[in-house]
Design goal:
With 765 residues, this protein is an alpha/beta fold. The protein contains 24 helices and 26 strands. The strands form seven sheets. The protein has a six-stranded mixed sheet with strand order 11-16-15-14-12-13, sandwiched between helices. It has a five-stranded parallel sheet with strand order 4-3-2-1-10. A five-stranded mixed sheet has the order 18-26-25-20-21. Helix 6 packs antiparallel against helix 16 and helix 16 packs across helix 23. The chain is globular. The structure holds 1-deoxynojirimycin (NOJ). 1-deoxynojirimycin binds next to loops.
Length: 765
């Protein structure tokens, strides 16, 4: 009997402990393999592992990198996506180099690879982390199919300035939503086992503070006080680390005068010591050499010294650039001089080798070229891209329930605007290797939806262009030549007369894909070119008018917000964007997306975000309703805002324990009901406000959300937990993380202005 119990116990231990033991056994064996390899490496080979080069198939010849791969002088290549060439280079590394260490191939898989999903800002608008995880699972599968092992995503920079072009690449302004999204992206890319043949290593970027650049100008200095850094800018990075992200990228700009790429506070104190990050750190492109440009390092060798000792393990470089390859050219000398130690170099190489082992590259270095097409053309990928685009769309206005349109009536639809039939722009930035021809524009989506009985005609109306061309034009190819003055007049007139002769007008306005993203900051957030003029003119015709926005940032749509009946924010919705928009326009899908950013009335209000402090007079007094005398200080649309084709109500807000001690948790619940006649999805959002403490706290902070699907008349209870992690903040007064006894206001509702409220009291332990 006793023996039986003992056997049972052992079995239980074995069973329950298996995953942990297996994992730790795996990591022990990786550690052993890393050490064994490291002990055989020459100094030169070690320096090779911390050297990464861009490889552009369009401009470079294999012979440029092959001798260095053979000599073990390159550890990683990026931007190469041709599986044949990837296998060719990998073969040299694993069969012809002395130690046969595989190359790590990296690429910016930001929102899809072959199948393009909505841009990250759009995916954040879904408020649906599970969807984001699924999308990035597919992106990982498609990328790994060609031999990409590592993506430079997710970008988890908080962005509170829509002039900054890279706002499109992140999850918006909020640390809580941003953290949930960050973790979802990481899970999607990496899964639980990055060595599986359909996963890639993720890279959180840009560490840290890049979104806070002065004036929204790309690459500009950021000054962020410690409290703001810990409470706002760092949480999404921490969430990515907690989700197991394998690598991090140091940012370009300087943070409080210290360039992020030479910033030991960020890279050592926060990342390694405070968070225990075990992965490796890569510099952003040329960020090491640019430490000289910053006025921080004396010369290239000093730049290598500063970045390396601050904690950047791997340097990303453009071949042939004079400021490039600072590590490759200086580390050996720096070690000889004693400025960098051999142990420091070993530490960096260890982390990179460990990633290569974890990815299974020593066992499976090659990719099966014959499987690529089948993986890429899986119809399930397109289906999910369409769902993702539907769920990312935000309905901003729907006066008189103009939407959804009926399929057979109106009989004629004018589809107007420079974005209405642009395959390039429906996809968004960082779409480099997808099949652009298979992308579906809004015009195509509407045509496919309504069939031949409805006349659907198109006129671009205006042309738009950047004043200063995008540096990415070299990869993306040129755009068509700007119209002449005569053409401009004729096209404008053509669009107006098309609208005049149609029953309903769908205007598709916004931005080209290269008007947001990297090196795409904008001084104003107005609709580029003569789009507003066209909108006003066509609106003046009095036809039913729907405005669809294709863009990467909130734009100044103040005029439209009070003059155009229906406004749909589609962002850059990806390959299936046109179909998804048509689904929504015609009611085959119901919009349920919510803004992940506060939407300003104009650039003059920037920065504007909902989680600000109250500080002195609130704008709610009879004789003081705005902090400007010329415009309201409230935004055009609040954070979390978005309409549906149905209506919802929130009721019965309750807290399981209205008084808790510091460190304890309570449950907040609320009933959400679909009070309309269509099925729809609502995002229940929980906001808190700490009434007093050692430091002032924001008027509201998001601390929970859930997207719920409800049939007409259906009611569901949504539950949130409020505990230590939600009620703790970094106090600028105490200079530490604190949870304080205080009274908290709670609100639950459909956006950051939710009015259903109750309180929670937290008392001393
Ligand atoms: C520069 C960008 O800042 C970064 O986000 C990107 O991953 C690298 N280039 C590589 O393309």
């Amino acid at each position: 009997m006793r023996a039986k119990v003992a056997v049972g116990l052992v079995m239980m231990l074995v069973l329950f402990d298996l995953p942990v033991t297996a994992r730790s056994r795996q990591s022990q064996s990786i550690d052993r393999r890393v050490e064994a390899l490291l002990s055989q490496m020459t100094l030169e080979e070690k320096v090779g592992q911390v050297h990464q080069l861009f490889y552009f198939t369009q401009f470079m010849k294999p012979e440029v990198v092959e001798p260095d791969i053979r000599a073990g002088k390159i550890g990683s290549l990026l931007f190469l996506t041709d599986p044949v060439l990837i296998n060719r280079f990998q073969k040299i590394a694993v069969e012809n180099s002395r130690l046969k260490i595989p190359l790590l191939f990296g690429f910016d898989v930001i929102h899809g690879f072959h199948t393009i999903f909505p841009v990250p800002l759009a995916m954040a608008s879904s408020w649906d982390p599970a969807l984001v995880e699924q999308a990035q699972t597919i992106a990982a599968r498609e990328a790994r199919a060609v031999g990409i092992h590592w993506t430079f995503a997710p970008m988890v920079d908080i962005a509170r300035d829509p002039r900054w072009g890279r706002i499109v690449e992140g999850a918006g302004e909020d640390p809580f939503l941003g953290s949930r999204m960050a973790a979802a992206h990481v899970r999607g890319f990496q899964g639980t086992d990055p060595s599986s043949p359909d996963r890639v290593l993720a890279c959180m970027k840009h560490f840290a503070g890049y979104g806070a650049g002065n004036g929204g100008r790309d690459y500009d200095s950021a000054y962020i006080a410690d409290a703001e850094l810990y409470n706002v800018y760092l949480p999404p990075f921490k969430a990515a680390v907690d989700a197991g992200v394998g690598s991090a990228m140091s940012a370009y700009m300087d943070l409080n005068d210290v360039p992020a790429t030479g910033n030991a506070f960020l890279l050592r104190d926060v990342l390694r010591k405070q968070w225990g990050f075990k992965g490796f750190v890569v510099s952003d492109a040329e960020a090491v050499g640019n430490l000289v440009t910053h006025g921080f390092a004396e010369d290239k060798s000093d730049a290598a010294y500063r970045a390396f000792t601050a904690g950047v393990d791997l340097e990303m470089s453009f071949p042939g650039n004079p400021i490039a390859s600072a590590y490759a050219s200086s580390l050996t000398k720096l070690i000889a001089e004693g400025r960098v130690t051999k142990a420091q170099l070993d530490e960096a190489v260890r982390r990179i080798l460990a990633a290569k082992f974890k990815l299974g590259l020593f066992e499976n270095p090659y990719v099966d070229e014959s499987r690529v097409a089948a993986i890429h053309n899986n119809p399930e990928h397109r289906r999910l891209a369409r769902v993702a685009a539907q769920r990312s769309t935000v309905l901003l206005r729907n006066d008189g329930n103009l939407l959804p349109l009926a399929k057979g009536d109106p009989k004629s639809v004018a589809v107007i605007g420079p974005l209405a039939d642009s395959k390039r722009d429906i996809r968004g930035s960082w779409s480099f290797v997808d099949d652009i021809n298979s992308a579906v524009t809004v015009l195509e989506g509407i045509r496919a939806k309504v069939g031949s009985s409805v006349k659907v005609e198109f006129a671009p109306g205006v042309d738009i262009a950047r004043v200063y061309p995008s540096p990415f034009g070299i990869i993306q190819g040129p755009r068509s030549a700007p119209w002449t003055e005569t053409q401009k007049r004729a096209e404008f007139e053509k669009a107006v007369s098309l609208a005049r002769s149609s029953d309903v007008v769908v205007m598709v306005l916004g931005e080209h894909e290269d008007m947001s993203g990297e090196a795409a900051s904008q001084s104003s957030i107005e609709l580029p070119g003569r789009q507003l003029e066209l909108l006003k003119t066509i609106s003046g015709l009095g036809k039913p008018l729907v405005l669809v926005l294709i863009n990467g940032r909130p734009l100044d749509i103040s005029w439209a917000a009070s003059n155009v009946s229906a406004i749909l924010e589609a962002w850059h919705p990806g390959t299936e964007g046109g179909n998804a928009i048509a689904d929504i326009l015609y009611g085959d899908a119901t919009p349920g997306g919510k803004l992940p950013v506060t939407w300003p009335r104009s650039a003059a209000q920037i920065p504007i975000y909902y989680a600000h402090n109250i500080t002195q007079e609130p704008e709610t007094k009879k004789n003081f309703t705005s902090r400007y005398w010329d415009i309201p200080s409230s935004p055009l649309y609040p954070f979390g805002y978005g309409l549906s084709y149905t209506t919802f109500s929130f009721s019965n807000l309750r807290v399981s324990k209205p008084e808790i001690k510091v460190g304890e948790s309570t449950e907040v619940s609320v009933d959400v009901e679909n009070t309309g006649r269509r099925a729809g999805e609502e995002v229940a959002q929980l906001y808190i406000h700490q009434r007093y403490g050692s430091a002032s706290r924001p008027v509201r902070e998001l601390k929970g959300f859930e997207r719920v699907a409800l049939a007409p008349g259906q009611k569901k209870t949504v539950r949130f937990t409020l505990g230590k992690s939600e009620l703790t903040y970094w106090s600028g007064a105490v200079r530490e993380w604190v949870q304080e006894p205080a009274v908290f206001d709670l609100w639950v509702g459909s956006d950051a202005t939710a009015s259903l409220t109750t309180t929670l009291r937290v008392v001393k332990r």
